[in-house]
Amino acid sequence: MAFALRKRSPKAFERAADGSMTLIExxxxxxxxxxxxxxxxxxxxxxxxxxxxxxRILLSEPYCxxxxxxxxxxxxxxxxxxxxxxxxxxxxKIGLWVGLVIAAPxxxxxxxxxxxxxxxxxxxxYAYIFTALAAPLFAAGAVLAFFVTxxxxxxxxxxSGDDISTNLEVTRYIxxxxxxxxxxxxxFEFPLIVLMLNFVGLASAKRLLSWWRVAIFVFFAFSAVxxxxxxxxxxxxxALCLTxxxxxxxGVAFLNDRRRGRGxxxxxxxxxxxxxxxxxxxxxxxxxQRVDSTAPIGVxxxxxxxxxxxxRYDDMT
Length: 317
Known about the structure:
Layout: H1 10-17, H2 23-50, H3 52-59, H4 61-64, H5 86-102, H6 104-115, H7 121-160, H8 170-187, H9 190-199, H10 205-210, H11 212-226, H12 232-260
Helix pairs in contact: 2-5, 2-6, 3-5, 7-8, 7-12, 9-12, 11-12
């Protein structure tokens, strides 16, 4: 069978680690990994379809918790559906996202198992650390986005006034909330980029700390763009969280520099225009031979003729 899966032997891992696998073996390995990851996502998608309605109700909570969302006739929170299949397609979309989250340990492992043999030991250790930090940071950003959405909707719906009836379309509302959660979650991954720059040696902790003014300005500008409301509450909350994470990352960078002994190099405390000390005794410089300035340049000196050889009478024989 062309798509039969084979269990990878320990020798295959060794061959992948030392680079002795052929191109066809790499392609087969990639095919097997993609097949397993796709199978896990399909199973997660099936579970996500079953959980789509509860998740949609959870995402609707920021809007349904407001008084403006209550229908005066039924007394319940109601949305508008413009197309016949909008809710069905929305449930499929939510099910896919939930399936990706549920199957994340499996497809992330398959991805890691394919690329890990080509990494060094310290690179794998860094990958473990960054992966362990990425998930909690993204979850923290998602929670903050959920909180900011509640406050932002309350501000926006109060601006419209009592003479205007507001009915939100369900697909546009869910897209608005999910996009905001994605933006906040990705924004909270910024400290990992700062740590990566320090761990690979591209930026020291002192240099990262010297950029704090630019970093704070970028955080507030980014927060002003991605937050849904013009009020300063959501923007300030996101910017302050990013600032705190940035300084925490710089603190970790200082600990990493101290552990590696950075800043204690031989030229670390010397300015650019300062002469560095020598660690050895230099040989004294003496004057060379004097050159005759009257001699013509480019003309070789005449070769001295050899002295005549004295011959005796018995050399003639």
